[in-house]
SRPBCC domain-containing protein
Amino acid sequence: MKTLLIKEFIYKAPPEKLWQALTQVDQMKEWYFPQLQKFEPVVGYPFQFEDDHQAYQKEWIVTNVIEGKTLAHSWAYKGYSGRSEVLFDLVEVENGTKLSVTQTGLESFPDHPHFKRERFEWGWEMLLGHNLRQLLESSTKS
């Protein structure tokens, strides 16, 4: 059975500022993955990461872009079966922006602790609930 992993976060930042954080490499390196080297919010664009010699090298490709509203990309690992999809949706709310992240396909990964749903849940809490929030809040104060 396919199940969705859905997390929602509200930031005290306008959608434009959040969109920049989701699509500009210098900001993405701060909250998402510091190994990111090149990225463009263009369908079909493959993320480029530095080879940090980790066991789980990412192979991601942009799959959907609606400027200022939606960004989606595949989530796969070199040498491992399985492919997931990550979808970021932005909605303006009173005094800020709601970001919903939906991840599908987790069940396609191998039965291994690195690929457990709980690990992804924790990851989104850290990446979006802590790292991205910290980036947006520190940049709104300046």
Observations:
- The mean pLDDT is 93.
- The longest strand covers residues 84-93.
- The radius of gyration is 15 Å.
